Amino acid sequence: MATDTAGRFSPHMRGVTVTALASVMGILAAVGSSVVTAEAATPATDPMGVFVLAGAILVQFPVLQVVGIDVGEFSTKDYLYVAFMTFSLWFVCWGILLSTGTTF
């Protein structure tokens, strides 16, 4: 329609941006969890690792707004997608860091 305004991002670029940020934040959350739980007797069961994950999920929405993604248009599915992608990358990367005994 003639009255529609062009958004800053095409739907494809919006999806790529959201996915890339969620993936990077998941990896950074894994490194952060590893750093925060390094001194714990059992780092895998330390709840601080999950708190880092929750923070990484929550910080993404203001970052997406700064980048120019309209978070107001997000549906429940979009929020769950961001949370799941971040959790997935965090889980795999932190599992690798725990298995190899990597410390920072």
TrEMBL record:
It comes from the Archaea. The chain crosses the membrane at residues 48-67, 79-98. Keywords: Membrane, Transmembrane, Transmembrane helix. The keyword Membrane applies. This is Uncharacterized protein. It comes from Halosegnis marinus. The lineage of its organism: Archaea, Methanobacteriati, Methanobacteriota, Stenosarchaea group, Halobacteria.
